[in-house]
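ARCHIVE CARD
Drawer: 12
Card no.: 0347
Subject: one protein chain, sequence and derived structure
Cross-reference: see card 0346
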Amino acid sequence: MEPYWSYEDVGIYFFVLVFLGAVVRIAVRAHWLSPAQLVTPSLALQTSVIAFLGIALYLILKWRHPRPVIGPLGWVLPARLYSAIGFVGGTAAGLGIAFVTRFRHEVMPTIPTLDFLVLGLFLGPVLEESVFRGCLLPLLARLSQLRALFGFFVMIFVFKSCVFIMGM
């Protein structure tokens, strides 16, 4: 399905992202949040931020373009083959990372099971896929090949910047 949103909508979303970052930092300065919450945020804070950003993306697209949002962002049920490939590939990648870190004698930080299940398997991937693959990638696909290659590297830079800023 062809995206109906534009770079304006993406810009509004990133404005909301920057605004949220400022609000969190102001909350620390006003002593509503402890500085330690920025270093090791609680499950509640991370869930709130991810839910807020997901809802913000949905509302931006819904209010600016009164059309369906979930389907055009690419959220459809995959075929069984792709589900199996994803499960096997994800498990293999996880085991590979575990073996490499064990072989290199590196210690993986422990993550509470609930945090991992909520953030690592559900909320985090849903937001990431919605923003980068669902929203940005279709816009970049409309560009010519050279511009799309440039846009692809811009998207990588933006994604890596977000990961760096969020400290993940």
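Annotation on reverse: The longest helix spans residues 113-141. Residues 7-76+106-166 form one domain.
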